Amino acid sequence: MENKPQDKIDNIMYSYATDVSHLEDENRILKETLTHMKEELTRMKSNPLMVCDVKEIMGKNAIIRIPNGNSFYVDLSQDLSDLTPGDTVLCEQKNLTIIKKIPRTKRFDVEKFVILDSPNVKWTEIGGIKDQIEEIKEVIELPLKNPGIFKKIGIEPPKGVLLYGPPGTGKTLLAKAVAASTKSTFIEIVGSELVQKFIGEGAKLVKEIFQLAREKAPSIIFIDEIDALAATRMDVGTSGEREVQRTFMQLLAEIDGFKPLGNVKIIGCTNRKDILDPAVIRPGRLDRMIKVPIPDEDGVREIFKIYSKRMSLDKKININRIIKGMDGFAGAEIKAVCTEAGYFAIRSNRGTIAEKDLIKAIAKVRLEDDDEDIPKHMFG
Ligand SMILES: Nc1ncnc2c1ncn2[C@@H]1O[C@H](COP(=O)(O)OP(=O)(O)O)[C@@H](O)[C@H]1O
Ligand SMILES: [Mg+2]
Fold it and tell me: Is the omega angle on the peptide bond into residue 143 within 30 degrees of 0, that is, cis?
């Protein structure tokens, strides 16, 4: 009983203490809210940053290009020492101070813009170009599969190769087959698309493609219609021409930049070797050239065999006559003849392809061929 007043005091003290800690909590929360709101306010007051490209680094300065295409000479702060040309940065709009670099992965999703593939074309699916197969094996396959032999002998394998010749003769097929035989990533870009679709971004895309190729190595960069990028130009007057020129320069820089013994190879492809800028085939670049021609008679026979193997052909067909009828056809046309002949048979409700189906198919393909306005002698 004599403890009673003491109990009362204890109780009061206790309730004060809880009140104080309550108030302290509340105070802390209010302070936090205040800082948060202050931050939000400064964030809302600040100007949006401009996305710019770094063109050149010159010691403590850099040349950047702002989105409207104009270039500026700006100061670089110390914490941006790892900046390289081609990087994308965020700049303040007023004084163009570089605030920060945008990380590579968030910049440009290059995989969306190229065809990434692991082809499964076999050498046996290619007909009539044996020498070309041997050559591409030597130039691309051997250094990828056995780089040691080049080191031992002391020579440098080529960085890449140029395939040229009329359309439909199997250039893409060759490139895919060598990618398959070396288990390489096949990165396909089309020169004309690079020029038309990625206006202002072509050079950057080229840079990213080579970066991607290194990441996915062993890889083969296949540049179809390389003439669209690397055509000899009379003048580079228009901004479009300058843009193509920039993209081309970046391509050359990338080719020059990597080691021949690396496991990235380039295969360029063109139907128009006549208009190709010789810079691209200079020593150390795509200095090996493989001509892929229209097949000769034996070639036609071989290609026809590949496609007719799976078809049910009438036994009575005079194959020699059919082969002669396809004189001058490229592989793609021979394949088209087989498909068309199949359709003629289906239309007449027959289960096998007769000689007349093939003859009609040849006539049809030849007619389509004649409609093309570019004469064949124009090609490489
Ligand atoms: N030499 C060939 N042997 C077998 N098929 C061929 C050959 N050349 C072309 N073809 C067929 O024609 C298609 C188109 O050929 P492609 O390799 O794209 O020609 P290019 O790249 O030279 O224009 C191929 O997918 C293939 O079906
Ligand atoms: Mg092709």
Answer: no
